[in-house]
UniProtKB/TrEMBL annotation:
It comes from Macaca mulatta (Rhesus macaque). It is found in: Membrane. One of its GO terms (cellular component) is membrane. The chain crosses the membrane at residues 106-125. Residues 151-460, 468-563 form the FAM234A/B beta-propeller domain. SUPFAM superfamilies: Integrin alpha N-terminal domain. It is a single-pass membrane protein. Keywords: Membrane, Transmembrane, Transmembrane helix. Residues 1-68 are annotated as: Disordered. This is Family with sequence similarity 234 member B. Its main location: membrane.
Amino acid sequence: MATVLSRALKLPGKKSPDLGEYDPLTQADSDESEDDLVLNLQKNGGVKNGKSPLGEAPEPDSDAEVAEAAKPHLSEVTTEGYPSEPLGGLEQKAASSLVSYVRTSVFLLTLGISMILVLLCAFLIPCPPRDLHSTWSRHLGSQGGGDLSPLELADVNGDGLRDVLLSFVMSRNGSAVGGSRPAANLVCLSGMNGSTLWSSLLPEEARDITCLELMPGSLAETVCLVTGTHKMLSAFNATSGKAIWTLNPNYLSNGTLAAPVVVLPDLDEDGVRDLVVLAIGELQPDLCFLLVSGRTGSPVGRPVKYNVVGVGNLIGPQVYITTNGAVYILFGFGNIQAVALRDIFVQAQNRDSSPPSLQIEEPEWEKRRSINLSELIDVYSDGVELLQMVKAPDSNCSNLLITTRQGLVLLRGQNLTPYWTLRLQGLRSQPTPGYFTDDQTLDFLLQIQDGVGMKKDIILGTEPPSLHHLYLLHPAFPSILLDLANTTGTVTASEVGINDLWKDAFYVTRTTGPSSEGHPAALVVSKLSLRWALMEGQMAQLQESTPKIGRGELRRFLSRIKFVEAPYEI
């Protein structure tokens, strides 16, 4: 067998008589060509070389070949009779197989890790709740009276949806025994489903609820400031509902709180924004400001009194910051006056110096001081009913929108000069800012008793007077009015919020049902998703249009509406 394999691997041709040499002349005549030297494996393990019969081994050509055949080479013979490969080839194949195995293992390992990470993200990381309809109604029982209906929206649980905070006077059965004033309840409802997140008892009826961050920074907690109708001023943790601090009512012994608390810059340099409240005595001239620490609820100095005489509604107080950074407090009775926060701070601290942030003055405002250099600055004095601050489009300050008994006036915040004046009788509501035309200029929606306005006889003439509606009028379809919702209760407060995650808006209402002797009115809080209401609302044609607008065309248009925060500030 060794001889056969040795001859099979030799070059074709016949041997010359000389050992180890080939005869080139006889190579062409050789019957053992390269094609004849094919090794055929037989069933019995034998080898057929060329034309030799099965089982016959060719005779050696020389004694050298016999000797060579007697010494089988390890690389040429295997135990089974099959030809073997060189050792170098085996090592190369083994190395190639190892690299392929390692490469496949790395790929499978990477794929497995990726799948595990995807599963972790899908099941362990909570997804924000999808507020598709976000429409609910919650009955809070009976309320025991009260003239005010405070309502506030704030995200207190971090789910991305603004929750509902309100306060109401409880029935007499729930009042404190022997208490001179009925107790009230501060409740926080989930913006997702209306469930109660927390509630806290209040010693008196609440006038206002304001939720904000008093400490600058991304990790600051939201605080809810609650102003009472008498002497209560408290700060609550918006997440837990626990009271952080309460102003000692002894500091207001000679007066009661006349308006909601106002947030100021940091005056005592403790890293938390401070507050100011306006208190008024039994007589109108007895009016004072009290600075309060936003961190502890303690007074920052003594009360500062001013003698103000006026006829009409209480205006403010509101804080105003000019372009240069000067801080003023606006207030009045039927008029608007301003006092520099610097002057209030100096008198409260009974010293001549003030923080550097309060030493800034606005020259155009200071020119309006009286001849005797009074601390009060006259801003406007002509039957003022309402004061709103509207973000100016061309500066970083706000303009003053003043509603009077005669109409509207827009004052430039920089120099207090009129921007425009509108004479209009019969205003019955606060002007609503918005972009109702295509000129990218801020407009105002007005509600009047007579003339052209949102409320018309055609809308309310065929409905019972006890049925209240929520309508939508879009500038693109001025002849169509959408009836989004209606209620038979009395709407005492309402707020509009934006869901930035889903580009939706929602409308929260606080309503009370009819009351009878011995049965207090029921309190109901409702939330309505506007995008959902747009699809379900009833269409009312105010006037015929050409071409006539179909409901399908209107629905396709409304389905593309997305709600975002307005670029202006109030």
